[in-house]
Amino acid sequence: MYSTKAYAAQSAASPLSPFSFERRDPLATDVQIDILFCGVCHSDLHTARGEWGSTKYPCVPGHEIVGRVVKVGRDVKNFREGEMAAVGCMVDSCHTCENCKEGLEQFCSNGATFTYNGPDKHTGGHTFGGYAKSIVVDEQFVLRISDKLDPAASAPLLCAGITTYSPLRRWNVGKGQKVGVVGLGGLGHMGVKFAAAFGAHVVLFTTSPGKTEDARRLGADEVVVSKNKDEMNKHANSFDFILDTVSANHDLNAYLSLLKRDGTLTLVGAPPNPVPVAAFSLIAPRRQLAGSLIGGIPETQEMLDFCAEHGITSDIEMITIDKVNEGYDRMLKSDVKYRFVIDMASLS
Ligand code: NAP
Ligand code: ZN
Questions:
Q1: Is 184 a pocket residue for ligand 1 (Cβ < 6 Å)?
Q2: 119 CA → ligand 2 middle, Å
Q3: Model-level pTM?
């Protein structure tokens, strides 16, 4: 075991503060990574503040991790000391169930081990994430990022990227389709970039009129301020697919009514409280409401390779780790363009 510095929340009510804990020394198939950058996801905030009700403290969030390999176990085949590497939302799964065999480790029937707040098979405690100097991960859960991409701006691809890429692929979003993205935050701005890259006609729904120009620059063909009922009504019954990335409770029926026959509204945003859905929003004209959780390891690598090929990264604001609590408060006010990334060199 070795000690690593980090930032942790000690309770739902306490801000994140300096903390240190022990990581395991790399086992035969493990990769040890010095973390250079870690993105700040709204899930980090939901978890640190106990909003989903399942947080174990102390909580070290962070699942958008990019760093350099500093040590590998003797059986590691795909990574070498000195290379760049990345870790997303998962660090382990059973490898034997049907979901794992299909590369959908996030749905592991025996329970995937998430990068933080998950049961740690090695220590018996819970996992600690990427707001830390170092991490040790089985190589099967370590991703490759191209040197063509900026490493800091690539960090958010590990969650915001795959979480939007996966449903857009799953529902075959592409040319000739009208696709909506709800919310221009960390996930939403990646959703706009990917939907545009896949050739769809992209409409961004926002509560922040000030984000209109950015949304167009990021790839949206149209921008709708969702508080404006007339603007919303103009799009009734017209969408093939809508991706909802909103982190707070809001009216889903307003978006369901914009879907055409057999259209799908997929939720990736995870507000803490249930939301009412009117039966008539769905039954005619035969609409669907769905959800999606990050993406499996093979698809995450596919997404990173797609990003390298198309020059796609996240639009980021780099912060030092002592500004992370301020970052959370700004994220809650939808005031981030469009993802905070912590420069881990600031943690000493
Ligand atoms: P974020 O950067 O805070 O973006 C959320 C966006 O939602 C905001 O920028 C804002 O966009 C909009 N919004 C916020 N409050 C709203 C309200 N009251 N009504 C309507 N719109 C509102 O968060 P994120 O990191 O993208 O994460 C978004 C959600 O996805 C979180 O709940 C997170 O936990 C969840 N998540 C899910 C998965 C998954 O696998 N399913 C993975 C990662 C994250 P505008 O200013 O444009 O309105
Ligand atoms: Zn996330």
A1: yes
A2: 18
A3: 0.98
